[in-house]
Amino acid sequence: MMKGVILNSGTGSRMGELTSHTPKGIVPIYDGLTPLDIQLKSFKKHHITRVIMTTGPHEEKLKSFVLENYPDISVSYVPNPKYRETNYIYSLFLCKNLIDDDVVLTHGDMVWEDSVFSALIDHSGDCVLVNKELEQPTKDFKGRVQGGRVTEIGVNIFDDDCFALQPVYKLKKASMRRWLDQMGVLIERGDVQVYAENAFNQISGELRIQPLHYADVCMEVDTPEDLALAMSLFKAKTLV
Fold first, then answer.
1. CA gap 129, 141 in Å, rounded
2. CA-closest candidate to residue 97, choices 78, 81, 75
3. pLDDT tens-digit profile of 104-131?
4. What does the alpha-carbon distance between residue 202 and residue 222 come to, in Å, rounded to a whole number?
5. pLDDT tens-digit profile of 47-101?
6. How far apart are CA 158 and CA 40, in angstroms?
7. What pairs with residue 3 in β-bridges?
8. Helix runs in the chain, H state only
9. What are the chain's domains?
10. What does the alpha-carbon distance between residue 150 and residue 155 come to, in Å, rounded to a whole number?
11. Of 180, 238, 220, 236, the residue nearest 14 (C-alpha)
C-alpha cells in the first residue's frame, strides 16, 4: 500500500508571527481548515492511512493535531534535530529506512483541490505536478520538461521549456529510494542546505518522472500573501 510523506520540519519564518509558535501545516486557511487537514483528508479519501511526517520545532503540536483530528491515520514522526542548519534534503533523507512502499511526497504547506490530488493518484507512473499555463514564478520551483518527462527542477531556471511546478510527487518505491541514495551522496559531502531536488537533478535521466499537468487550485502557502490568496480561492470555490 502507498504511504504519504509530509515534510513539516521547517520553521516557517516567512510567515512571521503566524508561525512563531505554530507550524505552517496547521495555520487555518478557510473555515478552520489547515494545509494538514486538506492533505490528510485527501490521503484518507484515497486509502492512504500510513504517513511519514518529518518534524522540526513544533513536533508536539503536530502530534496533538493528528491525534485529535485523524486518529485513524498511522503517522511515523521523524524529527530533524538539525532543522535550523539544514534544508529538507536532510529531513527527507532521515526517512530513508521507513520508505518501504510507493509514496506520495508533499511539503507541509501545500494546499490543493482534491481533483488535483485524485489525478495524481490515478496516474500510472512516477509523476510531479506541473502547470504550463501559469506565468513562470520567480521564487518558486519550475520544472524543465523535455521529451515527456521532467529533467530538472529548480528555482533559478527560466527557459522556454521550464514551467511552474508544485513539489507534490507520486513515486514508486524504487524511484524514491534511488533519489534518497543520491541525497545521501550530497549529504555525505556536506551539501545539507540545498533542496532535495538538487539530488534529483543529478539522476533525473534514471528516474523518468512525468509531468502531470494540473489546472485546478494547487499552491504553496509560504508567506502571508500566499495565505491571503489561498483564503480567497478556497472561499470562492468552497473547495473542501
1. 11
2. 78
3. 999 999 999 999 999 999 999 999 999 9
4. 27
5. 999 999 999 999 999 999 999 999 999 999 999 999 999 999 999 999 999 999 9
6. 33
7. 103
8. 35-45, 59-69, 88-93, 114-122, 173-188, 196-207, 224-237
9. 3-237 (3.90.550.10)
10. 14
11. 220
Cell of 4: 504519504
On whether the CB atoms of residues 13 and 57 are closer than 8 A, the answer is no
d(CA 115, CA 121): 10
Reference 169, options 223, 225, 218; nearest CA is: 218
**Amino acid identity for residue 51 in this structure:** V
User: What is the spatial distance between Cα 13 and Cα 17, in angstroms, rounded to a whole number?
Assistant: 8
**What is the number of other CB atoms lying within 10 angstroms of the CB of residue 43?**
23
> Is the dihedral angle over the CA atoms 165, 109, 96, 116 positive or is it negative?
negative
Cell 511519514, residue located: 52
